[in-house]
Each structure stands twice: as C-alpha cells, then as structure tokens.
C-alpha cells in the first residue's frame, strides 16, 4: 500500500474536521443569515411586501439550489485530485466550473427576465403579492451569474481544503449588503428609500463583491502554480463534459427539492398573504439551520474525497461515522434552541398579528425535525464527497414522490394549511434519513481513485 493510502487508513482527527468546518460555518450561514435580515427589514413594510419577497426568493433560489453541482460536484472532483497530490489539476476543476457558471448565469438572467411575470403570477396567485415579487426578482436576477461564480469558487476551494478564504470573501460581501439593506429599503432623512426593490439592489451589491474576490483568487493560483503543473484559464471541453456528467445527477436531485419547495410556497399562497408570510419566516430559519448543519458536511466532502483519492477507504468510512455523530449532536442542540425561542424569535421578523398567529403551526414541526436534519445533511456530505450522486438523486426523488409532494397537494384540497405543508416536509426528511443511513452503512460508496463509477 502507498504511503498516502496507509495514512488515509489511520484514525480521523476531530481537529481535522473542525479545521474545515469552522470556517465553512460562516460561509454557509452568511447567505441565509442575510436573508433573515432581509426578511426582517422587508417585514416592516407589511404582509404583502413580505409575501412578495417569499415568492421571489423561492424563484431566485432556483439559481443556487438547482445548480449546486457547480459547488458540490466541483468539491468532489477537486478533493480527489488534491488527495492524489495534484493541486493544479484540482484548481483547474474550479476554472472550468467558473466558465460553466458564467455561461449558465447569463442564460438564467435572460430567461429569468422573460418568465418572471408568469411564474410569479402562478406562485403568488396573481394580485399584489405577484406584483411585489416581480419588482424584486427583475433586479435580483442581475446577480445570477455572480452567484454561480461564487458557487464554483466555493467548490474548488473546499476541494483543496481551503475554507478560510471563502469565509473572508463571503463575509465581506454580505456584511456590506446587510449594512446597505435597511438604508436602501427604508431610506434615511427625507429620502424614503426604494422599498422592496432596495433589498434586491443590496443582494446584487454583495454578489458583485464576492464573485470578484473568487475570480481574483483563481488568477493568483495560476501565478503561483509550478511551471510543470500550470493552471490553464481557457475552457477545456474534456473537463467541462466530465463536470456536466456529475452535474446531471445533482441537477435532477435539485429539481426534486425545488418541486417540493415551490409547491409548498404555492400552496401556502392559496391560503392568503399571512400564511405565505408565516411560511416564509419558518422556511428561512429552516434554510439557515440546514446550511449551518452542513458545515460539518462540507468538511466531510473535502476529507472524504481526499481520502478516497489517496486510496483510503477505511479513513473515509471512519469520517462517515464521525460526521453522523456530529450532525446528531448539532441537530439536538438546534431543536432545543428553537423550542426555547418559539415565543420570541418570530416577532423579530414581523409585527403583523395575523402572520404571528400562524407561525406556531409550522414552528413545532421545524423544531422537532432538527435531529433528523442533522444526520441527513451530514451523511449527504459524505456521499457528495464520494461523488455518489446517482444514489442521492434516486433517494431524493423517492422521498419527494412518496413523502413531500402528495401531502403538500392533499393539504391544499383538504384545507390543512401550514400543518399539511410541514407534515409533508417531515415525511420527506424521514424517508431521506432511512435512505442515506442504509447507503452509508453498506460501504458501497467508498470507491477509491481519482475517476470512479459507483455501483448502484
């Protein structure tokens, strides 16, 4: 066995996980935390602007969640190359992902402008909520290419086990935006601000700063690369095709997520502006805690990929057991925290009495699901790091088709409201928990080498 393989088989240090997870936590939390700030700022405008933000934010989320292969797929490929001692090749994966990000982002911008009105009309059930959503969305779409460049940048940097620079980049951009948002929305002095549209402008400002920093980092990597291992900046069709192959499975998986969350928002909107606004508050908290739990999973992606690239299947399996425990501990902690804050935290986002009266319907589902979410997201990270995208695609489609979607639409027909929507989310998470636990225990995902195919 090679030296790399022997080292990979040894015990896994908790410090190695925390070294990557600690800086990843602010990166993962920054965007949903900013959205929480955005929700609180816009919430002071009233129920209709907040409901409009809820609809528009779900539509815009397609940019990040539907195209996560630019991040997760790049991490999986770059981490294996880093583990094999080929850093320049790992960075080259980031270059190609960035080209894809810019090309796809321009398509999203153009198509998004064309479909913003009809899509917002369907999800917002027409009227004032749809109008508010369109006004926000048309501005926010100019940030789409920038968001995708940031996804690609996070992907390759995680792959080379550098989570510190992404933390600095994302905090710089989002911090600037969080400071600008209240001013742009509500104004100051005699200026009344831009209202809901001001929050979209603040979003684009943040995305411009962060994407620029990631592009500069690629340029510096090119300059620092050894002459015999150059980092080429031009597009390479071979690498682009390979990334798209992995991306296909991750896109299909993301489609199932989006079918669920778009359906949930659409159903909530049918029960009125207070329902969709209450759903928005709890959903944004869900997104926030989910990505915080993913901090450990990000470390797992990088370490599992590197271990498998170096031939260390035993080390990868040990990491899987560790991150499952860490995810459970964090999930239990979040559950206790949100249960304790059930009567105080919702008031930070809105003063509308009708909205606050509906929040508890979803809140207790949200709090009770935290331990389940902690394990699911952690093991998702393990399997993503191993490049086991086909299994994740199939299991997520199964959970959506059998759990979430049937209950969502039955809740509309039966008038169950938010209780039906969040019952569907609970079923979705429990099916995923069973699937990823069984897959991880099987060990079939722990395939070593740089370029591998996973068994079904």
UniProtKB/TrEMBL annotation:
Its main location: membrane. It is found in: Cell membrane. CDD domains: MATE_DinF_like (cd13136). InterPro entries: DinF-like, MATE_fam, MdtK-like. It comes from the Bacteria. Keywords: Cell membrane, Membrane, Transmembrane, Transmembrane helix, Transport. It is a multi-pass membrane protein. The chain crosses the membrane at residues 53-73, 94-116, 136-157, 169-188, 200-219, 250-273, 285-308, 328-349, 361-379, 391-410, 416-435. It holds the Pfam family MatE. Signal peptide: none annotated. NCBIfam families: matE (TIGR00797). This is MATE family efflux transporter.
């Amino acid at each position: 066995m090679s030296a790399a393989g022997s080292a990979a088989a040894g015990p896994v240090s908790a410090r190695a996980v925390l070294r990557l997870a600690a800086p990843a936590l602010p990166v993962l939390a920054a965007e949903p935390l900013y959205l929480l700030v955005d929700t609180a700022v816009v919430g002071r405008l009233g129920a209709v602007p907040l409901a409009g933000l809820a609809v528009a934010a779900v539509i815009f989320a397609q940019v990040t969640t539907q195209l996560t292969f630019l991040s997760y797929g790049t991490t999986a490929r770059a981490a294996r190359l880093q583990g094999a001692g080929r850093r320049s090749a790992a960075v080259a994966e980031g270059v190609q992902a960035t080209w894809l990000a810019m090309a796809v982002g321009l398509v999203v911008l153009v198509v998004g402008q064309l479909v913003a009105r009809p899509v917002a009309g369907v999800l917002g059930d027409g009227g004032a909520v749809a109008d508010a959503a369109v006004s926000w969305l048309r501005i926010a779409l100019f940030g789409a290419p920038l968001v995708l460049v940031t996804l690609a940048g996070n992907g390759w940097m995680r792959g080379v086990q550098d989570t510190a620079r992404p933390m600095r980049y994302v905090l710089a951009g989002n911090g600037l935006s969080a400071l600008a948002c209240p001013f742009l929305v509500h104004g100051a002095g005699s200026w009344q601000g831009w209202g809901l549209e001001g929050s979209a402008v603040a979003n684009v400002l943040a995305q411009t700063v962060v994407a620029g920093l990631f592009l500069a980092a690629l340029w510096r990597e090119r300059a620092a690369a050894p002459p015999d291992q150059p980092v080429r900046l031009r597009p390479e069709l071979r690498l682009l095709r390979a990334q798209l192959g992995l991306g296909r499975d991750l896109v299909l998986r993301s489609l199932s997520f989006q079918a669920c969350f778009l359906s949930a928002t659409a159903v909530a909107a049918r029960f009125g502006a207070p329902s969709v606004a209450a759903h928005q508050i709890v959903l944004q908290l869900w997104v926030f805690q989910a990505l915080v739990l993913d901090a450990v999973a990000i470390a797992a992606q990088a370490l599992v990929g590197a271990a498998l690239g170096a031939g260390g299947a035993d080390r990868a399996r040990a990491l899987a057991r560790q991150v499952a425990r860490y995810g459970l501990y964090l999930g239990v902690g979040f559950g206790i925290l949100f249960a304790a804050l059930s009567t105080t935290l919702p008031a930070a986002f809105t003063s509308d009495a009708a909205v606050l009266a509906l929040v508890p319907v979803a809140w207790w589902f949200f709090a009770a699901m935290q331990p389940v979410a902690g394990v699911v997201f952690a093991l998702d990270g393990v399997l993503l790091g191993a490049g086991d995208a086909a299994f994740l695609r199939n299991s997520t489609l199964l959970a959506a088709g059998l759990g979430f979607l049937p209950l969502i639409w039955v809740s509309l027909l039966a008038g169950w409201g938010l209780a039906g929507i969040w019952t569907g989310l609970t079923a979705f998470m429990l099916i995923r928990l069973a699937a990823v636990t069984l897959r991880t225990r099987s060990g079939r995902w722990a395939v070593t080498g740089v370029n591998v195919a996973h068994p079904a």
